[in-house]
Amino acid sequence: MEKQLGKIGIPLFDRTIVAMGGHPRPEVRTGPRFGVDVSVVDLPGGMAMAMTSDPLSLIPSLGLEVSAWLSVHLMANDMATTGHAPMYGQFVLNLPDTLGAADFKQYWAYIHRFCSDIGVAITGGHTGFVAHQHSTISGGGTLVTVAPSGTLLTAAAARQGDAILVTKQCALSSAAILAMSFPETVKNKAGAEVYAAACSSFYQTSVLPDALAAADGRHAGAPISAMHDVTEGGVLGAIYELAVASGHGALIHNDQLPLHPVQQQVCNVFGLDPRYCIGAGAMVITCPPSAVQGVINRLHAAGVPCAAVGQLTDAAHGIKLETSGQTKDIPYHDEDPYWAAFYQAHQNGWN
Known about the structure:
- This protein is 35% helix and 24% strand.
- With 351 residues, it is α+β, with helices and mostly antiparallel strands.
- It has two domains: 10-151, CATH 3.30.1330.10; 155-347, Phosphoribosyl-aminoimidazole Synthetase, Chain A, domain 2 (Alpha-Beta Complex), CATH 3.90.650.
- Strand 1 and strand 2 (39-42) form a beta hairpin.
- Helix 4 crosses helix 6 (192-200).
- The relative contact order is 0.16.
């Protein structure tokens, strides 16, 4: 059987995770759903609880601090799509038995620091060492937040006719991690300046500032309807997921996508299209056309670049990309090409 890297595809997700969801409880408002970053459970008193889970990273080539940043902030990015910051965190660590006590303490100190920075209380979990554990995935975590029920956004709430906005740049995290993992290759093929710029962009991979600035606009005449975190499949994959989650089509204008020369040049080294590469650090936001400028202004005031790239359409029109007057379907890749490129670079001995 052919191996697949990354998240499972839509058909398998629907036939397994969605179809077999345990005991049905009426208070579960949003359970497992393609293109939706969080689950939502209604609570008494007009409150609701949002939850999201993700793998934890421990990547030797990137170091303990960067690994801890990815572990905390990639989970927080999913929660940010609700318009709220995470409040509580549970962590399960399955650590390699080669990791010493001093390194574990340092790794956990970074987890503690990054959680503290965004207001997350660590409430429990499980920690252990596993023999022959060589994966860069060191376990998993869950973040939780509680908020008034009507204030929690999900990607499913996007509306037909809404404008589609994207913050920052395409392939932000892909380019940063590739540059940090293969520094000599990127310096030799793209130049030292591109290498340095890509590495320095790593700490822009949090979208919590983007989301909170955009959500604040709901109280200043710039309402937003939905947000979706850009992960596997890149910006175009995230827009595809949001359109499917909300039951709509989309028309995206290629020349309006935020393609930055630094990310483009790093992706070129690895034969990647930045529009379809893992793009943590960018957020897809939908809002009425009349609110676009207000949302962009609020994001710019918070130091977050943002561009309008298209609009949601009737589902019958499909999910389309317009390039130089030509319109075609946006493909959805079950496997992000980043994984194969990263693996091939290792196989080639790139450093």
